[in-house]
Amino acid sequence: MKIDKLKNIMIAHRGLYNNKDIPENSMLSFKEALKNNLPIEFDVHILKDNNLVIFHDDNLKRMTGVNKEISECTYEEIKSLKLLDTNETIPLLKDVLNMINGKVLLDIELKSDFFSRKLEREIVKLLDNYKGDFIVKSFNHLSIYWFRRNRPKYIRGLLKEDFSKEKNIFKKIYYRYFNFEYFLKPDFYSYEYSASSSKFVKKLRKNNKFVLVWTVTNKNDYEDVKEYADGFICENIKDNLLLKD
Asked: Which of 109, 171, 212, 240 would bridge with 231, disulfide CB 3.0–4.6 Å?
C-alpha cells in the first residue's frame, strides 16, 4: 500500500468496543468495526510458545482477572480465559487476519521486547502472505529498525508519547534527544493526543511527514488536533462518524 492511504483516515482503536458486552481487542469488536467499514487498530503480543495474540496489556488482570504476565503464558493456558466476563476470548492474530481478509486496513501495534526481535520474526511469517493493507508500529526503536532492515516495503511507524509528562529525568532526556529517527526512517509517526500540537509534531508536518494522532475520543478532540495530523486513531468512533463530515 501507499502511505497516502493514511490521509484523513479514521481508525477504530482496539476495534469498535464498549468494554461491557463488547470487549476491546476481541473478535466481536473487530466484527463491529467491519460492519461499519472502519480500519482497525490492535495490539500484538508473543506468547511463551511463540503464538501471536491480540491483547493490549502486559498483564492479563484488567481484562481477564488473572494476575499474570501474558508473555509468560502459552496459548493453551489462556485460550479459555474470558474477556471482561463475556463469551469473548483472547484472539490469535492468524484468526483475525483470516476474518478481516483485506476488507479494511489494519494498524498493528507490536508489544515488542526491547532487545529480542522474536515477535518481529514471527509476525512477518503471517504478514508476508496477507493480501490486505496493513501498517506496523511500535514504541520500540529497535523494532522499527528491524523492519527497515528486513522488511523495507512494510509501512512502519514510530509511536510517541507526550514526554513532557515523564517524571523520570533519564527517560525524558532519552525521549527528547535520543530518538535515532535518521537510522529508523519511519514512514509515519503516531503521537499521543496531548502532544499533537507540540513543536516536534509541527516540525514533522512541515517536513511532510505523516502523523497519526491517538487517541481521539470525541468531536472536540478532533477539532483540537485536526490541523496537526493526517489521520486519527479514535475511540467511541461509532458515535462520532460525523467527524468525517
From this structure: 212
Contact 155, 187 (CB under 8 A): yes
H or E segment to which residue 174 belongs: helix 169-177
Question: What residue spans of 128-168 are helical by DSSP H?
Answer: 141-150
Q: Which residues contact 154 (CB under 8 A, 6 or more apart)?
A: 127, 135, 136, 147
Mind listing the pLDDT tens digit for each residue in 202-213?
888 888 889 999
* Cell triple for 86: 463475556
Residue 107 — pLDDT band, cuts 50, 70, 90? very high
User: What pLDDT was estimated at residue 104?
Assistant: 98
User: What is the distance between the alpha carbons of residues 28 and 30, in angstroms, rounded to a whole number?
Assistant: 5
Residue whose C-alpha is closest to residue 237's, from 43, 7, 4, 18: 18
- CA 180/CA 193 separation, integer angstroms: 22
Q: Is the pLDDT of residue 119 over 80?
A: yes
CATH of 3-240, one of 3.40.50.720, 1.10.357.140, 3.30.365.10, 3.20.20.190: 3.20.20.190
Task: Decide if 141 contacts 120 (C-beta within 8 A).
Answer: no
Instruction: Judge contact between 124 and 157, C-beta under 8 A.
Output: no
Which residue matches cell numbers 476474518?
99
CA end-to-end span of the chain, whole Å? 25
Strand-strand pairing, 52-54 and 134-138: unpaired
Q: What are the residues whose beta carbons fall under 8 Å from the beta carbon of 73, sequence distance 6 or more? A: 47, 48, 60
Peptide bond into 217 cis (omega under 30): no
**Residue 191 backbone dihedrals phi, psi, to 5 degrees:** -100, 145
